[in-house]
Structure formats: C-alpha cells, structure tokens
C-alpha cells in the first residue's frame, strides 16, 4: 500500500498523521507499507502499539520504519490498471526492498516480484536487468560487453539512449525494445580509445536514458574502469654545479 500526499491538520501542535494515524489502544501491524510526502506526519502512533513486521518505508521516520527519506515518488498518474498510482524513480529506495515472498501482484495487476525483489507500496517497477553493471576495459585493448533486458512486456516501444563518458566508445548508442522483442537480451560493446596521454587508471561511466517504459523517463548508469597503457615519462630538473 502507498499512502502519499494526504493531509491531516495539526491540532494544538500535535500531528494526526496525514499518512497513518494509529489511535490509542489499537495495535498497528505494518509490512511493506510506503507512506511518504504526506502533510501532518507520514505515520503517527498515539501512545499505541506498532508492530513492525518488516520493510516499511515512512518518509519522516515515524512508527520505527525500516526506511525513510525521499521515496522519489512521481505524481499520481494512469500507469495502467483500474486506479491511478504513484510510480517512483528507478533509484528510489522503495524498489526491490519489500519483505520477500508476500506480494504477488501490485495495485495495477503487474506480477511481483520484478527485478531482484518486490517493491514497497502499491506499485511494482517493471524494470530492466543490466549485466554486469561494472566493467573494466584496457585503453586500446579488447572490447567488453554488457547486456540489457526488460523484465516485463511494454505497451509500446522502449528506447534506451546510450551516452559514454569521454575516452569510451559504445556500439550501438541506442537500443529499442518492442512489445514483441522485449524479452530478448540486447548487448552493448564498450572499448576504450587508445591515446598517448599518461592519465593513470580512471573511473568513468556510461549513462542511459530510458523512455517509453512504464510512463516514466528514467536513467541508469554502468560504471567503467579504464586501465591506462601509456608509459609515463618524468623529467627531472638538471642540477648544475658552479
Ligand atoms: Ca522490484
Ligand atoms: Ca593513456
């Protein structure tokens, strides 16, 4: 369940929980709840018992939650299914952090889990798999590859624009997944350009912008370590004796 953008007025300086308000003498059992971006408290327990059954996200740290902070929720929108839902960014801590083996569909009817585990709240990110997401290439040396695959069938074409940092070359620089080829893994080849500069080994990245998937434009990156092969020459000042 996702509870977001609800409001409860403060009375006498006391918050009544725009997201969750647990009244005195009642017991609140929570698991896999996502309560964030509410006004008047994301979860307020008024002298009553909260039983944390694991993996709850409460933006303002109320109710002894396991996760807090910015849930990176996106505006309420038609993301498929019978009701509007709050999607979230790919980098949201809600993604893949649910208590395992307890959720089988999300509020839209999308099967859970997607990716490494189920997501917190009402929305399951139908994401993609990147393998590996860290690699090493040698300057002027052999190319390496990584693969990208979607985890669910998209409703239309999904494009992924690939942008390597300086010193890297990638092929291709754009991927397209369609509703018919979405489950076929696509590979990207990476190589490091040869040069005559002594730069030392360095860490760069390949950025990706994904459009047309889940009504959300999102980004991810793959980390690349470049090993420098250029010999380094050092010059010392010539000391002259009088
Ligand atoms: Ca997931
Ligand atoms: Ca070099």
Notes on the structure:
With 242 residues, the protein is an all-beta fold. It has two domains: 1-125, no CATH class; 128-227, Immunoglobulins (Immunoglobulin-like, Sandwich), CATH 2.60.40. It is 0% helix and 38% strand. It is built from no helices and 18 strands. A five-stranded mixed sheet has the order 11-18-17-13-15, with no helix packed on it. It is extended.
**Residue windows where pLDDT falls under 50 for at least 5 positions:** none
The pLDDT mean sits at 89
How helix-rich are the residues, as a percent range? under 10%
Q: What is the number of strand segments?
A: 18
Number of helices in the DSSP assignment: 0
How many structurally independent domains? 2
Largest sheet: 5 strands, mixed
- Spatial order of strands in the largest sheet: 11-18-17-13-15
Shape: extended
Which ligands occur here? calcium ion
Distance between the termini: 84 Å
Helix and strand element order: EEEEEEEEEEEEEEEEEE
Rg from alpha-carbon coordinates? 24 Å
How large a portion of the residues is in β-strands, by DSSP E? Answer: 35-45%
| Secondary-structure class | mainly beta
């Amino acid at each position: 369940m996702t509870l977001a953008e609800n409001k409860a007025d403060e009375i006498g300086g006391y918050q009544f929980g725009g997201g969750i308000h647990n009244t005195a003498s009642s017991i609140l059992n929570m698991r896999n709840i996502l309560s964030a971006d509410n006004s008047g408290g994301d979860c307020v327990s008024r002298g009553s018992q909260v039983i944390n059954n694991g993996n709850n996200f409460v933006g303002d740290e109320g109710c002894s939650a396991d996760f807090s902070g910015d849930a990176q929720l996106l505006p309420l929108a038609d993301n498929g299914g019978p009701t509007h839902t709050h999607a979230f960014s790919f980098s949201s801590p809600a993604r893949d952090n649910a208590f395992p083996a307890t959720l089988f569909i999300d509020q839209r009817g999308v099967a859970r889990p997607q990716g490494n585990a189920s997501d917190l709240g009402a929305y399951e990110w139908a994401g993609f798999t990147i393998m590996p997401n860290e690699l090493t290439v040698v300057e002027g040396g052999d190319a390496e590859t990584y693969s990208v695959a979607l985890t669910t069938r998209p409703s239309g074409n999904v494009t992924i624009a690939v942008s390597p940092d300086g010193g890297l070359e990638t092929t291709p620089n754009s991927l397209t997944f369609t509703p018919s080829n979405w489950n076929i893994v696509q590979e990207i080849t990476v190589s490091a350009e040869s040069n005559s500069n002594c730069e030392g080994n360095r860490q760069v990245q390949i950025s990706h912008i994904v459009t047309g998937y889940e009504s959300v434009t999102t980004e991810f990156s793959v980390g690349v370590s470049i090993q420098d092969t250029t010999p380094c020459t050092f010059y010392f000042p010539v000391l002259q004796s009088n």
